[in-house]
Amino acid sequence: MADDLSRPREVLSSEILPDDFIRALLQEQAPELANMPFGRRYTDMEEHFSVRVGDELIVEFPRQHRTPSWDPVAMEHLASASQDWDFDVRLPERICQPALGYPHRFEVARWFDASTAIRSPLRTEAARDLGRALAQIHTEPTRDDAPLHEATGASMVTRSGLLYERLAQTRDLRSPEGSGVDPDAVRLAWEAAIALEPTLPRTWVTGSLDPRTVMALDGEFTGLVYWREMSVGDPISELGIATLLFDPPGTDLLLEGYGVDTADLRTQMRAIALKRALLYVHADNPAIARLGWTRLSQMGVLADPTAA
């Protein structure tokens, strides 16, 4: 049976594990769950997919390697710090180990009733609550062994290569309205940001902030899910990504809730938002791709399709 259920080292982003394989994994790692009914699958994220198990649980299966991955020090901090947070947090109840050829650890967590912000968009006023939530998360670490985030643990300057790579990959892409990305406008925004000193120190970060990990109910922010990559990194990155969840007026409210607002911080947040939006326009998920194009247009970095 194990041979039949083996998988390659990397689960393809297009692949959703079949029920019999999931049951076999649960039998190995969480046998009390193996015979429970499976419900809806959530496949919005490129990095992982989720399966409802019974009425109260959800299992998160990574599709890609990440560092860190449910680091024990980060999980200890999350369990302690989240007791004082004023928003819902889907805490891991169990971290299961790789088995049967599936190469990743995976998470069992308790379900709470809300939708992701990409499925149920947040009202602009909810930006204030999201900013307040991020301020609670973004505290400076007190332990020397706190893990660094693989990407945002480094400075913005060292991430320039990825920005330019994404810019090159969008050269021939067009928005639904026929506009292309203006590479000079993007480069100017990025170079202005990296010329500045960091405006915030490294802090704890969720490590995976995204419209698909922010939860919403009736337009209100309710909480955050999926803490696999919680670690120490650049809080500016998460603030920049958070701006993509709202039309431009949301940035004022986001920073009001966060409690810090400077011109330099906004410059760096905008550069991060551009970098992430350049990723989103490649997404197979049409809602994410549309969000990327919309925000690039609002940030003024799309070329006029009618210009000669």
UniProtKB/TrEMBL annotation:
A Pfam family that the UniProt record links to this protein: APH
Domain Aminoglycoside phosphotransferase residues, every copy: 75-271
Highest rank taxon of the organism: Bacteria
UniProt-listed InterPro entries: Aminoglycoside_PTrfase, Kinase-like_dom_sf
Annotated protein name in UniProt: Phosphotransferase
Annotated organism of origin: Demequina zhanjiangensis
